[in-house]
């Protein structure tokens, strides 16, 4: 019989948040694949657990090479436990490749539910939670970051992002530029840890705050775009949106099509606005 792949959530801060089944799975797994074996050692010591199985590293650098090895263990009947540094495996952490490969070989996959920075930040944000989407980490390069944000500028669901503290000010400034400085957001820092902080406000206000320097693990929650009819988007705003996309490297034709779809107006309306603005500028 084939084994089972177990994805286990680990605490995102407070060790007391470890799910009860985590200790049992750590003790009983044939193989424990950990994003960082040193952090795993600290976790098992805190839980008073000694893994009986083999402990191997499974991180971004060796994920592709180690996945086939672990799949063979699973096919051979092993119970493989996958843990990452914090939260659920596969959510902006290693795991997706292993799950996909296990599913392809008809290996059962289950999970030990645990803490999630995404859901914790969403719940604490004070923003709508009935519909949301997780966007993970934004690209590091400014142009690519702006491009990704423009793709969701009209998204009405609440948006959730992870971000590194040293890039937070640039990210919030980019969000303010694309979404608008008044769009509501929440920066959730060091969730469940001693210095937990949730800072709420407009994106422009939060960008100014972050410019002074922020430390710790960061999750950003952004309010979705407000519903608006075509008549609410004036010609000047349509032209501005096209210009922003062109400055990011898009061809005018594609920029006009994207803005038209985003604003809910015919492409001809956007085209005419761009031409009129060009003629007015001389």
UniProtKB/TrEMBL annotation:
Transmembrane stretches, start-end: none
Residue ranges annotated for the Tetrapyrrole methylase domain, each copy included: 4-207
Catalytic activity, as annotated: cytidine(1402) in 16S rRNA + S-adenosyl-L-methionine = 2'-O-methylcytidine(1402) in 16S rRNA + S-adenosyl-L-homocysteine + H(+)
GO MF terms held by the record: methyltransferase activity
Record-listed E.C. numbers: 2.1.1.198
Record CDD domains: RsmI
Keyword Membrane: no
Subcellular location: Cytoplasm
Keywords for the protein's UniProt record, in alphabetical order: Cytoplasm, Methyltransferase, rRNA processing, S-adenosyl-L-methionine, Transferase
Annotated GO biological process: methylation
Domain of life (superkingdom): Bacteria
Record has Mitochondrion as a keyword: no
InterPro entries associated with the record: 4pyrrol_Mease, 4pyrrol_Methylase_sf, 4pyrrole_Mease_sub1, 4pyrrole_Mease_sub2, rRNA_ssu_MeTfrase_I
The protein's role, per its UniProt record: Catalyzes the 2'-O-methylation of the ribose of cytidine 1402 (C1402) in 16S rRNA.
Family: Belongs to the methyltransferase superfamily. RsmI family.
Identification of the protein by name: Ribosomal RNA small subunit methyltransferase I
Organism: Streptomyces coeruleorubidus
Lineage: Bacteria, Bacillati, Actinomycetota, Actinomycetes, Kitasatosporales
Gene it is expressed from: rsmI
């Amino acid at each position: 019989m084939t084994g089972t792949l177990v994805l286990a959530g680990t605490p995102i801060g407070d060790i007391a948040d470890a799910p009860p089944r985590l200790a049992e799975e750590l003790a009983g797994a044939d193989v424990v694949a950990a994003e960082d074996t040193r952090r795993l050692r600290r976790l098992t010591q805190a839980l008073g657990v000694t893994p009986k199985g083999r402990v191997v590293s499974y991180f971004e650098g060796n994920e592709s090479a180690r996945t086939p090895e672990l799949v063979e263990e699973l096919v051979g009947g092993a119970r493989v436990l996958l843990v990452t540094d914090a939260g659920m495996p596969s959510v902006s952490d290693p795991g997706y490749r292993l799950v996909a490969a296990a599913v392809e070989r008809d290996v059962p996959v289950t999970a030990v539910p645990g803490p999630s920075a995404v859901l914790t930040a969403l719940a604490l944000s004070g923003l709508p939670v009935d519909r949301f989407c997780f966007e993970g980490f934004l690209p590091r390069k400014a142009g690519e970051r702006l491009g990704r944000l423009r793709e969701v500028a009209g998204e009405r669901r609440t948006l959730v992002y992870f971000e590194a503290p040293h890039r937070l000010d640039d990210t919030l400034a980019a969000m303010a530029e694309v979404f608008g400085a008044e769009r509501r957001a929440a920066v959730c820092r060091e969730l469940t840890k001693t210095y937990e902080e949730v800072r709420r406000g407009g994106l422009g206000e939060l960008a100014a705050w972050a410019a002074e320097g922020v430390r710790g693990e960061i999750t950003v929650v952004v309010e979705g775009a407000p519903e608006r009819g075509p008549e609410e988007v004036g010609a000047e705003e349509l032209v501005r949106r096209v210009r922003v996309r062109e400055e990011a490297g898009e061809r005018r034709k594609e920029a006009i099509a994207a803005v038209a779809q985003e604003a809910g107006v015919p492409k001809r309306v956007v085209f005419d606005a761009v031409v009129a603005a060009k003629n007015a500028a001389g």
